[in-house]
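Objective 1b: paired records.
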Amino acid sequence: MARKNKDQQKREGEFLFGKKNYMIMILGVVVILIGFALMMGGGSDDPAVFNEEIYSFRRIRLAPAIVLLGLAIEVYAIVANPGEKK
């Protein structure tokens, strides 16, 4: 019982992931934000006029692919081994 308490106290001050994991997570969030930024725009100022720009390659194919890439980076950041190689 005493050993369990020592292990618990030792782990209490540690982060769940390592620095490497958090840096990869930040990279993933940036990639996702870039994907959403690429989706923006294409609307029409006049609601009576339809703008074909909303169906451009950038908004339909490229931006969702970049968002999915960012999500894959996030999954990798969660599963990556936080241990430092020496």
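Objective 1b, second protein:
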Amino acid sequence: MTDRPPVRGAHDKPTLRPARAHFSSGPCAKRPGWSAAALATDSLGRSHRSGLGKARLKLAIDLTRRVLKVPDSHRIGIVPASDTGAFEMAMWTMLGARPAAMLAWESFGEGWVTDAVKQLKLDATVITAPYGELPDLTRVPQDHDVAFTWNGTTSGVRVPNGEWIRDDREGLTLCDATSAVFAQELPWDKLDVVTYSWQKVLGGEGGHGVLILGPRAVERLESYTPPWPLPKIFRLTSAKKADAAGGVAGAKLIEGIFAGETINTPSMLAVEDYIDGLTWAEGIGGLNELYARADANAQALDRWVEATPWVEHLAKDPSTRSNTSVCLSLPGAAPDVPKKIAALLEQEGVAFDIGGYRDAPPGLRVWCGATVDAADVQALGPWIEWAYGVVTS
């Protein structure tokens, strides 16, 4: 590595430390000023089906609608198994009614492709791109159902907008928005299904997913019965029943799921933590302020990248670069250098969990979502540079 670019101040350990060293991409940092003492606890030890339990779940749903500005036409439900459970629920209950297109440019999208093709046995059109790039979205057939991640958490590449989704599309759009929601604008009129987990963006405790359904998704659920068995936790409609005339009535959406009656037992402590995050978000100015904070964090990191010759963004095109899960590559370094940097900075207590995802190219990943403070991102850059100098000298 004799041709390695010079490192500014390689042996000068920085003195300014991030006040909060939490840069994990999920669960991400708690909100500024978070304390367990701030959480309401009256619902703990109570049934989630009690009046209080259902009221707190319904409050979480109502706050979600207010903060995200979800239209009244869309239903919001809290479901099991994080974003994975929510997106699997959507795929298993809705895909198969018409041809499907699956998009993938990083590991989570690749997972949805695997489930659609190998588990559901769909003859899907698969459109892919390598890490750091976005597929050609003009190739997506508008008469197909399409499933995709809005923000590639493990590649740092996001969809820049929804202009590629036609208003007169025939297929449904199923969007895994888990590291985009609360930080990037989502076109609700173009998205029929949106899923996420609150641990990815608001720093909530894991284990729960959010499923948002537009009218076209509800219509699909009530008019289509998939040919495969559905586990109980995936069932969103009631069983068909004979009507008064002796005919068979259509399936009906289980509306209780979208009013605080969860399919299985939720952690009420996790729900209270989510409520706390939503209340904080609303209190600082809502969605626009969340966008601004994430943008400011990503810009702070980008300034350091631009000034540092040995590091690059994995996402080359700024228009498709994430402002939450920012992925960095070290093109001149040995493959084990990023891991050594992450380990050294964790040992120093200045950066936790910034190693790249296990399936991604070797690199670093820094969470820049709204619960992180820009001053901490600014303080992080010199520490990465110091660690690079230490592990490569």
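The domain at 46-283 is CATH 3.40.640.10 (Aspartate Aminotransferase; domain 2). The chain has two domains: 46-283, 287-388.
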